[in-house]
Amino acid sequence: MKKRKLKVPHTLVILFGMVILAQILTYLIPAGSFQRVEKANGQLQVVPGSFQFSTGAPVLSPWACLTAIPKGFSGAHEIIFFVFIIGGAFAVFRATGAVDAALGALLRRLGHRPFWLVAGGTALFTVGSSTIGFGEEYFPFIPVLIILALALGYDRITAVAIIMVGYGIGYGAAIINPFTIIIAQNIAELQPSSGLWYRLVLLAIFLPIGIYHVWSYAKKVGQDPAASLVAGVSMPEGMSISSGPDGKTQQNHSPMTTTHKLILTAVGLSLVVLIYGLSKWHWSLVEMQGLFVGLTLVMAIIARMSPNRTAVEFGQGAASLTSTALLIGVARAIQVLLNEGGIVDTMVYSISLPLQQLPGALSAVGMFFVQSLANFFIPSGSGQAFVTMPIMAPLADLVGVSRQVAVLAYQFGDGFSNILVPTQAVIVGALAIAGVPYDRWLRFIIPLMVKIWIVGSVAMAVAVLIGYS
């Protein structure tokens, strides 16, 4: 009798299962909440020691798991719209021919030095996340890197990993990330950007670990394409590259013209404006979407592309990312149910109690893992800071460690697990754009996460021993 091969469910099926599980948890875990006070910036901060179980809390309707999905789409609408606009803008970008021309030029330079594509790319995205807090902003780079990685003989996971590993390490070993470090230190009543020296040391330790993991996998796939974790998984529409009769990737790209150079210049200038707008003008996703709409128009004008063709290309590009939008919306539905059930605060409160029984170094490690678990339920970095730091900061005082150590634990827990938890819209969106099933990504990322958890635990213990403050 032939043994049946285990078939892994579609990512959408897995996420919907988690939505149902979230609703079940609302029936099993009692609702509770902390008192909150409004800060000067309008955000609510938890009052330590104020947790109380809620009496007479409403029970979710049996249909809540269904209504949570449209609510999830509503809550994630800015990211979903951003994904659509990115898909449309990139489709127009490809239609101009500038992508293929640039790809040919890059291959001529990196064809014999692919390590620098992996190392340099990972380092670049790490710096962006570590300093400015980039996340969704990396979506436009995913299709470009996929094409480049495929042309070099690697796979889509390699391309996604260059970006997402950089993103995770950048957040986990952040230097001055304004959305995590600065907020957490403010809540913990620490000087903004204090403790910078130790975070710089940690960044220099974690980045090589990430680069080594990605490069080892890329080399394995380059030597044996069958070793790819996405072997047999269909390619997203519009991201394949042509192959010759021998099955090898064709590298006969069109020569670079003046028009191509002008389009690439426009794209480069747009990215500079994007970075400046995020760091100086405090742009949101809305302004970013407007920038890419404007870029689309500029590219079409430079390429002398007709309005009708521009509209068709843009529409097809946006439509190709419909599955991405679905995954992001359903992932957000998990958080919707946990919030409506009133159990998020109960979970945070419960997992913080055992930490008070541990000695200093171990309690710091425990904080790291508590924050990692909290990131599943509160994927927003700033949101997690406002919920957990008012608890962890005074807890640090109780167990005899500095509040800077508590901030470091939050930073590790929130940042590194961003590339693991399926409730995080950035990783879900990146995988959906690349057509990488979540289970395949887990097989790639879990070995790296084990290394990070071990090294991170040692780093937490060392921080306690040296009196990091």
How would you explain this protein's 3D organization?
There is one protein chain. Helix 1 (11-28) runs parallel beside helix 13, helix 5 (114-131) packs antiparallel against helix 9 (196-223) and helix 15 packs parallel to helix 17 (403-416). The chain has 19 helices and four strands. The chain is globular, with a radius of gyration of 23 Å. The chain has helices spanning 11-28, 64-75, 77-95, 98-110, 114-131, 141-151, 156-172, 181-187, 196-223, 258-280, 285-302, 307-319, 322-340, 344-352, 360-377, 381-399, 403-416, 425-434, 438-465; strands at 32-33, 36-38, 44-46, 52-53. The protein has one domain. It has 469 residues and is mainly alpha-helical. Helices cover 67% and strands 2% of the residues. The strands form two sheets. It has a two-stranded antiparallel sheet with strand order 1-4.
Give a short summary of the structure.
The protein has 469 residues and is an all-alpha fold. The chain has 19 helices and 4 strands. The strands form 2 sheets. A two-stranded antiparallel ribbon has the order 1-4.
Strand tally is: 4
> Largest beta sheet, briefly?
2 strands, antiparallel
Helix content: 55-70%
Beta percentage is under 5%
Please write the string of helix (H) and strand (E) elements.
HEEEEHHHHHHHHHHHHHHHHHH
The tally of helices reads 19
Task: Summarize model confidence as the mean pLDDT.
Answer: 84
Distance between the termini: 64 Å
